[in-house]
Structures are given as structure tokens and as C-alpha cells.
Write a structure and sequence with these properties.
- This protein is α+β, with helices and mostly antiparallel strands.
- It has two domains: 154 residues, no CATH class; 73 residues, Immunoglobulin-like, CATH 2.60.40.
- 20% of the residues lie in helices and 20% in strands.
- It contains six helices and twelve strands.
- Strand 8 and strand 9 form a beta hairpin.
- The longest helix has 15 residues.
Amino acid sequence: MARYPQETRMRRPVLLAVAALACMTLAGCTAASAAVAAPQGRGLLKVRDPGKVTGTITGHCSYRDKDKLPDPRCTPGSIDPIVTQANIGSTICKSGWTKKVRPPESQTERFKEYVAFPAYGLTWYRESELDHLVPLELGGSNDATNLWPELGKPSGNPKDHVENALNAAVCDGRISLAAAQNAIAADWMTAEKKLGLASTTANSGGVGSPPAAWCTATASPANDGYSGDYDVNITSNQPDQDATATDANDTWSDDTSSTGSVTLTLWYTSPGETITVTVGAATCHTNA
């Protein structure tokens, strides 16, 4: 998510002109990608735009549910069609995916200042962050239909807990990718409840009890020139915690990053061998 400390004062009469100018200056923005909303009755709009912001917002947008949800006409949510149920192991469930597809800050900052702020009528300082409605970790796109200025402090954002919980549930096979995408696009505050997951976020937007510890892991042959070495890619909601991967012949540990991810390399691992991972209070398994 792109985060910024303040808004820029904008005048309503220049809204449409500014939005059009921003669309022309944002890399990858095309007339086709400048849709205001997804086609009704056809599910989420699909936009393939890795690493760049596409589209624009025209007209006036209004928050709903006490400013906690975006305008569905302006921000209905959209997804990257390359991410499918069949390939989640090599996309959203693999460490480094969001970094691979996230746009540079220079583009998201221009979009927030010249498109999102004026469209949502934000004319002066408000604590906020430019947010992907369907997060990148669930296959969300970088199109304007999926970006909105979410109000509140960027740190401790309760929506982040929901995003992590849904990503873990998809990667664990508890829910489908499409179900998670549609639920969070409709209402991130009720998504966990609709999907039958333990809710950790109250409707008020506050955080309830801490989310349960979870982790996911995938293993692939290491590109180090040694046969039998495997990289274990770990994703979790346990930032800055000790992570350990163990198989029959080797154990390796390291600390997770601030996002709860880390890659560990095991030696002399046999194909098909079970690898056990512990991350803080979480435990998960994968096979070589």
C-alpha cells in the first residue's frame, strides 16, 4: 500500500481537468483502462497492469459506512487476471509477489494527489493512505477502479489484518481466491464473517483480539548450483520473529522481515520430503 502523510488542497471546479491530466501523465493509463466502474453483473473488472497505475476517476465520489468504505461507483474493486486459483502457489502465496507487481511511489503519489483526493472531495489535511480495495496479496490490480484514499492512520490499519487473514485462508485452501476477492471488494469489515473465518475486526473499524498466528510456506530447488538444496519461502503475520525450517537432515533459522516474510535454505533435502516451519507462534508445513 502506498501511504502519504497529508492531502493537497484542490479546487472542485478543476476536478475533471485534473483527473484527465493525471490520466495522461500516469504511466500505462489508457482510455480503455479509465473505466469508472466494473460492468454490472459480471464480477470484478479484470485489468492486467503489473508495476504501473492505470485508469482514472471522474465525477464525485462519496464514502459510505461512516467513511470506512469507498464509493462502489468509483472504487468497485478490480483484479489482475493473471492470478488464478490454479497458480496461487507461484503468485500471491509466494514471497515477493506484492513487491513484484506494486507500482512505484512516484506513480501512486501522483494518483493520490491529482485523482483520488479531488474525486473523494478531500480538500485539506486528513490522515489517510492510498489503498488497494482488493489487495495485491489477493490478486488485486493497480487500476483506478481498485484504488481509494482510505481515511485513518496508516499504522495499525485494521484492514491490513483482514487482508492477511484472507491471504492465509486462500493459501491454506480454506477458501477460494474468487470468494476472498469478492468478499473484501464488497465490504472488508464483514469479509471474514461472510467467509466463515474467525473475525478479528469490529464493525467500528477497531481491532478486537489479536489475530491468530499463521504462516504459509512453499519450497523450490535453490538456484545455488548444489543439488538437494531447497529454498523455503515463508509468509506469515509474525513480523520480526524467529523462523525455523526443518527437514530430516537440516535445520535453518532467521528472522522474518517487517512484513512477516523470509526465505530459508535447507541442504540435502530429498524431493517430496516434508518440511516443517515455525514462525513465532505459528506452525506450517510444505513439501520439497
